[in-house]
Amino acid sequence: EELKRTTEKLERVLAERNLFQQKVEELEQEKNHWHSEYKKAQHELVTYSTQETEGIYWSKKHMGYRQAEFQILKAELERTKEEKQELKEKLKETESHLEVLQKAQVSFRNPEGDDLERALARLTRLRVHVSYLLTSVLPHLELREIGYDSEQVDGILYTVLEANHILD
Question: Which controlled-vocabulary keywords does the entry list (predicted)?
């Protein structure tokens, strides 16, 4: 049961990690796009500022527009860098959490970590002994085909204890 929950949690963490990695890649592409736009705009500004007016007239209004566009691109690039950094930090946290879960899962599989199997075996033996006790007290009770790995014996014992007012 614990192994199943750990495995499910591990799968969720892996999915979350993959989602973060995908988001980081998308942001990296977006950052590269904005960076190339930034470089292109910067190059255009340099080209137009060094170029003599060869029939091209750049009004102050148009240059102001290009400068504003340049500032917007620069701000977008900064925002993308910050978001990328945040996602990298979340990815690191998720990977460390994943590592802890993987270590926990390995300990369940580890031969030294057979505690769960031993506990289940002891529980099954206890249920067998309880069924023997119940059949000796109630001879008409048929428990031959009962599954000791399920909670059937527990339910029967609980019913007998309730009927005899032992739980009160």
Answer: Coiled coil
